Amino acid sequence: MIAIIDYDAGNLKSVEKALHHLGEDAVITRDKQLLMNADKVILPGVGSFGDAMSKLQHYKLVDAIRQVVEKGIPFLGICLGLQLLFERSDESDGVEGLSILKGEILRIPDCEGLKIPHMGWNSLSIKPGTKLFHGISDQAYVYFVHSYYLKATDEKDVAATTNYSTLIHASVEKDNVYACQFHPEKSSEVGLKILKNFASL
């Protein structure tokens, strides 16, 4: 069973629908026991970093997430869910992230001819041998919606990058923690393959 963490984020249903489409048993929950007993856990999210952290605290999910990760359960952050795994964000000064991975979330720099937020399809430079992108060809296109991007401290954690005004760490893998800045649930066949790869870990 794949548990999708419910903290009032906007894209929970679309993630659940994509997993059901793949034939996976998925449930949206904020029940700590359910999260601890799940085979896999997903933290989706759209919205602001500060609001999301305060919702996670409100629902007492911060410790639950850390315990899930410590237990070794495969964990996937999507979009804002990726950003929350890191230490801080330009979007919400003074708000501490989950700090499960090292790095910071920065605002995409202004660049003539490019709109922010970055909304649309971009190709990925995929690091060979990554589990999330198994069977996916380099330069595959995925769908992004974001104004802030990840700069991971450790390059070894970066599974894929893309370019939009700057080099963006678009996906990370470290031990049992996986995350994508883009939306696999909105990224057509490539996105479904990524979710299937995660479900098959």
Task: Please provide a written account of the structure.
This protein is an alpha/beta fold. The protein has one domain: Class I glutamine amidotransferase (GATase) domain (Rossmann fold), CATH 3.40.50. It has helices at residues 12-21, 32-37, 49-58, 62-70, 80-84, 188-199; strands at 2-5, 26-29, 40-43, 75-78, 88-89, 103-107, 118-123, 125-126, 141-146, 148-152, 158-163, 167-174, 177-180. The protein has an 8-stranded mixed beta sheet with strand order 2-1-3-4-13-12-11-8. It has a 3-stranded mixed beta sheet with strand order 5-6-10. The mean pLDDT is 97.
Give a quick summary of the entry.
By secondary structure, the chain is an alpha/beta fold. It has six helices and 13 strands.
Report the CATH topology name.
Rossmann fold
Would you identify the CATH architecture? 3-Layer(aba) Sandwich
- DSSP helical segment count: 6
Total individual domains: 1
The CATH homologous superfamily is named Class I glutamine amidotransferase (GATase) domain
Task: Spell out the key features of this protein.
201 residues, alpha/beta, Rossmann fold, eight-stranded mixed sheet, three-stranded mixed sheet, 6 helices, 26% helix
Topology:
Layout: E1 2-5, H1 12-21, E2 26-29, H2 32-37, E3 40-43, H3 49-58, H4 62-70, E4 75-78, H5 80-84, E5 88-89, E6 103-107, E7 118-123, E8 125-126, E9 141-146, E10 148-152, E11 158-163, E12 167-174, E13 177-180, H6 188-199
Parallel strand pairs: 1-2, 1-3, 3-4, 4-13, 5-6
Antiparallel strand pairs: 6-10, 7-9, 8-11, 11-12, 12-13
